[in-house]
Fold this sequence. Notes:
The protein is mostly helical. The chain contains four helices and no strands. The longest helix is centred in the C-terminal third of the chain and has 38 residues, at 55-92. The radius of gyration is 36 Å and the shape is elongated. It starts with a helix and ends with a helix.
Amino acid sequence: MADEKNTVTKSEEAKVTKQKSGKPAKKKEPRFRPAVIKFFRDFKGEFKKINWPTRQTVLRNTLATLAMCAVVGTFVILFDLGLSALVKLMLSL
């Protein structure tokens, strides 16, 4: 009796594997290669849209960055010297 309940006919199995649309269910296979090709094609298109700066703009921005680094570095050094002098003064009392 238990064996009869577990057996499923082919027509019943076909009904189970059908999707809601009435078509048999398909196995989804990974589509790796087309996805990679599409990625690089889109990448190339986006890369062409980049507005690259001129050499003069890059040079100007680099010099501004170096100048700001020098100013901030000088400020940090002076602040550190001032604090170390203050600590020495307090310890000597």
